[in-house]
Structures are given as structure tokens and as C-alpha cells.
From TrEMBL:
Catalyzes the conversion of uracil and 5-phospho-alpha-D-ribose 1-diphosphate (PRPP) to UMP and diphosphate. It is an enzyme of class 2 (transferase). It holds the Pfam family UPRTase. It comes from the Bacteria. Keywords: Allosteric enzyme, Glycosyltransferase, GTP-binding, Magnesium, Nucleotide-binding, Transferase. It catalyses: UMP + diphosphate = 5-phospho-alpha-D-ribose 1-diphosphate + uracil. HAMAP family: Upp_B. This is Uracil phosphoribosyltransferase. Its cofactor is Mg(2+). Belongs to the UPRTase family. Its EC number is 2.4.2.9. NCBIfam families: PRK00129.1, upp. Pathway: Pyrimidine metabolism; UMP biosynthesis via salvage pathway; UMP from uracil: step 1/1. The gene is upp.
Length: 209
């Protein structure tokens, strides 16, 4: 089974608590998600390989570390994934972005595919799939399957909140994909919402209902 990392940094936990509050404004929710995405991206990229290169500072030559090896792709599960990707691109501006369009059928809770666009060289890249909520796990499982079908071999999954049911379902389907999350909540309710959760991440991010 793949590793699940709960990123329990105090700044992340504090910002997540603010995001959960139901009176939080759309603008504030969006800003907090962007801030948290930087901190989560820091953790999910912690083990990226570096190589020493020769440079010259204004004072002296030196050998200094630079990122080496695989290039990154951030794969956003539309639409709420975009709220995480925007901040992550601040941190890694050279990353490519894939978009996976899935919506959840509210009755079956199954994902329905409607869009897919990814860089052609997925096989050579580290693909970090992002969606704020890992609830039933159905969308995440399907998005990663689509990306693997398109060539992705080295994949990680990053979310803000997870339900135990979603973590288990995802690990069963993709045992090779490590999961990073800020918290694992209690459970799912009958409508497939995470409890206590924060509601519908897409609606809260974009002010829709
Ligand atoms: N998607 C959301 O946005 N929120 C949930 O609680 C579950 C799925």
C-alpha cells in the first residue's frame, strides 16, 4: 500500500481551520487555499533530486544545488483542483499543467469524464495530481487511471482533506501512488460529503451553489 502523509504543519492546520468555518468569504477561502497549496507543494516536492552545478556569485565561484532529473506536471482535477494548482505554480513556474475534467454524478457518486488535456511527454515527468477533497475516492481513482493511460508512470496525489473511505479506495486502486493531505477527517455522509469537512470545495472556491 502506498504511503499516506498527513502534512500537519501548524500553519497548514491553522489555515485549514479558517477554511472550514462556514461564514468564511469566497475571497478569503480562495486566498487561504492558495497559501496552503504552497505549503503542501513544499512537502510533496521535498525529495526531488538536486545536482551540483558550477555558478559564479558576485563574490566567488561555487558549486551549488539545482533541481535535476524529472520535470513536473501538476494535474488538476477540474474544477476545484485549479484552486491548488495556481499556488503551486507560484512555487514551480516551469511545471506543465494537465487538466482532467470529471464531475460527480450526484446520485451514483460516480465520476463522469468530460475533458482531458495533458502534455505529450507524461512518461518522463513526475505527475502530481491535485484535488482539494479526497472523498469517495472515485474521481481521484479515475483521474489517475486516465493519466496512467496517457503515459504517466511516476504519480503522487495531493489533496487538502481526505475521508478514510477515500484513502482506502484510492490505495486499493493505485497502491503505487503516494497520497499527501493536510487532514483525514471522520467519515463520509450519505451524500458523499466529508464530515466535518468544509462543504463543497468548488462552490466555496468560486462562490457558486
Ligand atoms: N467534494 C467536496 O467538495 N466536498 C466534499 O465534502 C466531498 C467531495
Amino acid at each position: 500500500m502506498a504511503a499516506v502523509t498527513v502534512v500537519d504543519h501548524p500553519l497548514i492546520q491553522h489555515k485549514l481551520t479558517l477554511m472550514r468555518e462556514k461564514e468564511r468569504s469566497t475571497a478569503n477561502f480562495r486566498l487561504l487555499l492558495r497559501e496552503i497549496s504552497l505549503l503542501l507543494a513544499y512537502e510533496v516536492t521535498r525529495d526531488l533530486p538536486v545536482e551540483l552545478v558550477d555558478i559564479e556569485t558576485p563574490v566567488a565561484p561555487m558549486r551549488a544545488p539545482k533541481l535535476s532529473g524529472k520535470k513536473l506536471v501538476f494535474a488538476s482535477i477540474l474544477r476545484a483542483g485549479n484552486g491548488l494548482v495556481d499556488g503551486m505554480l507560484d512555487l514551480v513556474p516551469s511545471a506543465r499543467v494537465a487538466h482532467v475534467g470529471l464531475y460527480r454524478d450526484h446520485e451514483t457518486l460516480q465520476p463522469v469524464r468530460y475533458f482531458f488535456k495533458a502534455p505529450a511527454d507524461l512518461t518522463e515527468r513526475l505527475v502530481i495530481v491535485v484535488d482539494p477533497m479526497l472523498a469517495t475516492g472515485n474521481s481521484a481513482v479515475d483521474a489517475v487511471a486516465e493519466l496512467k493511460d496517457a503515459g504517466a508512470r511516476d504519480v503522487r496525489f495531493l489533496c487538502l482533506l481526505a475521508a478514510p473511505e477515500g484513502v482506502a479506495r484510492f490505495a486499493e486502486a493505485h497502491p503505487d501512488v503516494a497520497v499527501f493531505t493536510a487532514a483525514i477527517d471522520e467519515r463520509l455522509n450519505e451524500q458523499g460529503y466529508i464530515v466535518p469537512g468544509l462543504g463543497d470545495a468548488g462552490d466555496r472556491l468560486y462562490g457558486t451553489k
